[in-house]
UniProtKB/TrEMBL annotation:
Name of the molecule in the record: Phosphotransferase
Family matches, as InterPro entries: Aminoglycoside_PTrfase (IPR002575), Kinase-like_dom_sf (IPR011009)
Cited Pfam families: APH (PF01636)
Domain named Aminoglycoside phosphotransferase: residues: 46-126
Length: 210
């Protein structure tokens, strides 16, 4: 993690477009060159982020996903900005549109559901447990592949996920009403997932999605 002093941070931030912020300050910036700067703050004094910052986790997760041939952002640098008590990751975004941005394209909905079902099965088989799984964090790239963004809250394992982990991950995907309605509008998503894996049964997946 590289130290970034306040003057250099302000120079990097100059002309940036704020994509996300809260009462404590900026969270996600699109810089002048189109790259992204995502800032993290420690919300508690005693937290695992003290020895393993979220910016570092984001970068490490990008490396792991790339090694497993899963499209994701490309990290340029990880910073510690002491003057504003923030850690930051500077990265090139994954090009494309999120699935949430594509929900209104009715002609392709079932195709997208099937593609997503097979993609989630691929993630699970490759040991990826994405706790922030929702349609706003899955991107359809210009090449027609699905990839992941906003991946600080992710765990990876050397082996495929166990059945309990898979079913719990589906619970995460159903937290948002809009996502839930789209995923369950047909059986395309569940059928594609079941066809691409051999761990969960149809009844178990149906129970998890209910």
């Amino acid at each position: 993690m590289q130290a970034l002093d306040h003057a250099r941070y302000l120079a990097l931030r100059e002309g940036a477009h704020v994509l996300e912020a809260d009462g404590t300050g900026d969270k996600v910036l699109r810089l002048r060159d189109g790259s992204m700067l995502k800032l993290f703050r420690r919300k508690r004094l005693i937290t695992s982020a003290a020895w393993y910052p979220y910016a570092r986790r984001f970068a490490d997760n990008c490396t792991t996903l790339a090694e497993r041939a899963i499209p994701c952002p490309r990290v340029l640098q990880v910073y510690r900005i002491a003057e504003i008590a923030r850690d930051a990751v500077h990265y090139e975004p994954l090009p494309g549109k999120t699935l949430r941005q594509l929900l209104d394209d009715a002609d392709s909905n079932d195709d997208l559901r099937r593609q997503l079902g097979a993609f989630i099965a691929q993630l699970h088989d490759k040991g990826v447990y994405f706790r922030s799984a929702h349609l706003g964090n899955v991107v359809l790239t210009p090449e027609g592949q699905l990839g992941l963004i906003d991946i600080a809250d992710m765990r990876t394992f050397r082996r495929p996920l166990r059945k309990a982990q898979r079913l719990r991950n589906f619970k995460h995907m159903l937290r948002y009403q809009e996502d839930r309605a789209w995923l369950l509008a047909s059986d395309a998503f569940a059928s594609a997932y079941l066809a691409a894996q051999q761990v969960c049964s149809s009844s178990e997946l149906s129970a998890a999605l209910s």
